[in-house]
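> example.struct
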């Protein structure tokens, strides 16, 4: 379990670093000369909200269920794999949220439009740090 926890923390920190790089690239990049169509901006906003919703669904269906099982039986390989995959899927979705901000910036959106995506992906990834499942209280 501790090996899986260390691996997940390493992946988390690497992905947090990449989100910082996305934000830097978004600030440096020169967007297309045309302005971003407001309909596309609304599409990205809707996509961002949907991604955040999917993050919470993945956590509830994969991470929490596997954590309950691991709390009672820490040697359950199937639950451990589901727990790791749940965290990796969560981190991947946080990364996608930050990428949406970068893509919006590249397509011509102002820097201020990408910032909420970067902050959201970064904050959610920090908030969902891997924790060792605690045994149930009796």
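> example.seq
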């Amino acid at each position: 379990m501790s090996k899986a926890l260390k691996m997940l923390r390493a992946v988390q920190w690497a992905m947090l670093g990449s989100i910082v790089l996305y934000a830097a690239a978004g600030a440096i990049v020169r967007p297309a000369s045309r302005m971003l169509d407001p309909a596309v901006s609304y599409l990205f906003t809707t996509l961002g909200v949907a991604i955040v919703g999917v993050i919470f669904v993945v956590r509830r269906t994969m991470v929490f269920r596997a954590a309950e099982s691991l709390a009672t039986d820490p040697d359950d390989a199937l639950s451990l794999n589901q727990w790791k995959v749940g965290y990796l899927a969560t981190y991947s979705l946080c990364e996608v949220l930050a990428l949406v901000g970068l893509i919006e910036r590249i397509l011509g959106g102002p820097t201020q439009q990408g910032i909420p995506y970067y902050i959201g992906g970064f904050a959610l990834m920090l908030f969902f740090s891997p924790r060792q499942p605690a045994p149930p209280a009796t």
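> remarks
The chain has a mean pLDDT of 89.
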